[in-house]
Amino acid sequence: MGAATLSLLGIIIKTKMWRRFGSFVLHVAFIVIFIGAVLTRYFGTEGVLHVRAGESESEMVSVKPYLQIRTQDALFEHPLNLSQIGDNDFSFTQSINSKSFTVKFSSYKPAPKGEQSTLAVKAGFEGGSEQEAELRGGAGWLGEPKILNFDGEEIMLSWGSKLIELPFAVKLLKFKLERYPGSQSPSSYASDVEILKEGKSAGEHEIYMNHPLSFGGFKLFQSSYDTDELGTVLELNRDPGKIPTYFGYFLLCVGFIGNLFTAGSRFKKLAKFIKNNAPAALLLIAPLLLSVELRAADENYLANLKANSRVHANGAFAELLVQDYMGRIKPLSTEASEIVNKISGTDSLYGLSAEQMILGMSLNPAFWRDQKIIKIKNDEIKKMLGLAPQERYASFNSVFDENGNYKYPEGFDPETNEWLEGYEKQREEWESQYAAAHDLWEEHKVFAARELETAAASAAEDGQAEPEPKGQEEATTYSSADESEGTLAADDQLAALREQLLSEDK
Question: Is this structure's pTM higher than 0.85?
Fold first, then answer.
């Protein structure tokens, strides 16, 4: 990266590139991006902080593992990431008490996730004997130290993540976890934290997914949580190269635009070439002609979808298990039928099955926003949407005007959210229609709740009820007194039943 930066600087100076604005800015942009990458690589910090409810923590565990060499007076650290494949050979030499101390690779044994790996090294002073040590640790582990004695001088070696002191402390006020209705699967979780600076509060914040906290040059992300829901795991990141990198991207855009107007640029030469070369111009126009052809093909989209999607939509796609908004798990075919029926009042439309329609919406949502699939019964709503009285369906885009705003009934002012004077009749009709729709929605919620209760009861009867969470040390146990219930009968029971049947036959 350093060589690339020096090369770019050399090219700029040698060619006096500052005379050509576009090219100059492009080359400077890459130099700035390289500088940002160097700052991130050598000065950036990334780690994980674990804190329990009501407690505070000011140290994070680094994501990057280090080979640590510790003496009575000093500590030396070398970044060391090892791979399961490839050559992991390395050798680190450090001056300790005016003598060269070397640690070199011997062997590496990776471990499954959740366990410590083993690194074997050979270490010794120059001119002296070597000693071998096995270091257990790796990324995410505070490595187990190994003490070696060299003629009375003790050297401690370890390999793993290190503790990084933060310029502030994080106190967990409360951890919040929400689950999908009817299931134990988490839908979202968040941490209410208080930042402590020099023992004083610097504010309270909520950290959740896609909503990090920026403080003291660090970004704090919600990463995980403890199973008892009394602790949280935050990921911290400090990236001093972020601003230079983004500025470099900005310069790239400026350079590309400037290159369009720079005399003698590639773009200017290409434009001159096309101007004097008809075949080349035709070649550039070809993509435009192709786009016209694609638009024409788009008109036959429904026919193509009907002909080509049946096997896929009604096969493995229909068998996919999905979760509805109430938390129930069901085949996609069932969910698709319910959605299409709710929208269109039918299980199929345009000769397409519900599965085909859902598949088509997933592949080309822009097309389906203009298709009339929403069933409309009310004449006033049809009039408001600009539909003819005999039309039965409306499109998604038909509820918006040319400016992208919702269409409202005549006499309603969306800015004040009030009805204008003289439109009392329209207001009464609209409110009655809204009340009827709201009643239907409430009935639907009651029906959905009953369906969930019925499903849960049925699952419990079949022995498929979800196990209770083990929030206590002792899990629920079951007595063995009734082990025969629901199982094969014992031999004596079978013999007695056989004799009874034989006697009845006689």
Answer: no
